[in-house]
Amino acid sequence: MKKYQKFSKSDYITWYNQNLSYRTKVAKDPNRLHYHLMPETGWLNDPNGLCQFHGTYHIYYQYTPFEPTGELKSWGHYTTKDFIYYENHPPVLFPDSDIDAHGVYSGSAFIKDDTLHFFYTGNIKYFDRDDYDYILSGRGSNTIHVTSKDGFTFGEKELLMTTEDYPDTISCHVRDPKIYQHNDEYYMILGARDIDSHGLILIYHSNDLKHWQYHQQLTTSTPFGYMWECPDVFMLDSQLGLICCPQGVETFGIEYENVHQCTFMQLQFDEKTNLFSMVPNTNIQLVDRGFDFYAPQTFEDETGRRILIGWMGIPEADYTNPTTKQGWQHALTLPRTLHFEHGHLYQRPLVELQALRHKKRHYDLSLLSSAKETALVYEALITFTTCESMELTLREGVTLSYQPITTLSEENPIKKQALISYDPSKPYILTLDLGTHGSGRTTRSVALSSLQNLQIFSDTSSLEIFVNDGEEVFTTRVYGQQGNISISGSYTGSLTLYDMKSYHILTQTI
Ligand code: FRU
């Protein structure tokens, strides 16, 4: 496919039928994950349109099937009923019309009257002049609505708003609509960059999901990045919250070390004025501490759980993925449930994933290193009864270490960083070090008040580490497959370890 040339479902089917050898090559890559969703070929980024409809979970995602560096986006599609057995379907939305010709960008699903309403951004790039900066000019961001009765067949694309419709103070960067319902009112939340390059969200209001009116803007009291992508407003354990992805926030000590962030902020809603605002002095919480987490989306499932799935990747990072040479790149994170406790966002892996566990073993931590554990695709649950310091090897050359910040050696550059953002209520530091296995990824850290437990998901080329019942999470890709689980330091506790079975993924033939 040519760069920025529209493609339709029939182009895709023709291409698919001509590319069996590409699929075979990708499938053989030893870095393919066993229990994560990936693109069958090519590139994947944000999860889109997450929902549960008539019992079936639909997981759409930003998808460029043809090549692994992500040019023209369509919406790929997985379904599952249990998060173990999946079906991989052909894409549902293609950049095949003048309103989304340069990418069917991210969007969301909203269920009303037994109909799925999808809202997404149709990306347009103009090439007729050479002086476009693609920030204030040269780009169109269309907000588009499309419905479906089953999640597979989509109706006509309906253009709701174009770049001209957004406020004059806003740049060409407006995208990623998500719907929040309050009583019988609907609010569409869009990520945006203003003409002074400050990130914010735009909020539109509707009574019927069809007619939308500008409602308000919302941002932090002091500027926080130049663009906020993928906003998501939702009620969680009686607290209104916003997850969004601010771009261009400066690193502060061990905070905001990634090129772009994903943050959680507490909101409030005034019932009299119907206006949203930030909770005064709200803590801006990083949703994830790893190298590869961005653009998550949440939805409420039929049992009332708020489930989050993220992109296990990040745009514009200076580290890479060797899978690109094998013709594919990126994956989705494990699905997690969200909770708001002690003024903080918690993430916990979905209980359904426990069905992947097998070959259980249990160790007292004092005996772990002599057990010579070489599992690579595993889930590890570690409970500390005490922990003053420890270094846990997760696989050969990859460690998670914990100690008081003050005891880090003076030569360790992490100490200098940690002292910049030092908070006396969190005197310990937990650091993930990928050694030489990060393909450019080095270390990421978080300050903690104590370490009580760890729940670690290791797949062939990924790690997700849930700290203290999901108070903090590190999500990362990792490239080194020699198994070795061992621990040293000053602690007491135990480890329960499971090998993990693979997802069952049935790919529909077309
Ligand atoms: C976030 C993002 C979204 C956009 C999409 C395009 O990763 O940049 O803002 O809609 O990806 O693929």
UniProtKB/TrEMBL annotation:
GO terms for biological process: carbohydrate metabolic process. The lineage of its organism: Bacteria, Bacillati, Bacillota, Clostridia, Lachnospirales. This is Sucrose-6-phosphate hydrolase. Belongs to the glycosyl hydrolase 32 family. Its EC number is 3.2.1.26. Residues 36-349 form the Glycosyl hydrolase family 32 N-terminal domain. Its main location: cytoplasm. It comes from Candidatus Scybalomonas excrementavium. SUPFAM superfamilies: Arabinanase/levansucrase/invertase, Concanavalin A-like lectins/glucanases. Residues 353-487 form the Glycosyl hydrolase family 32 C-terminal domain.
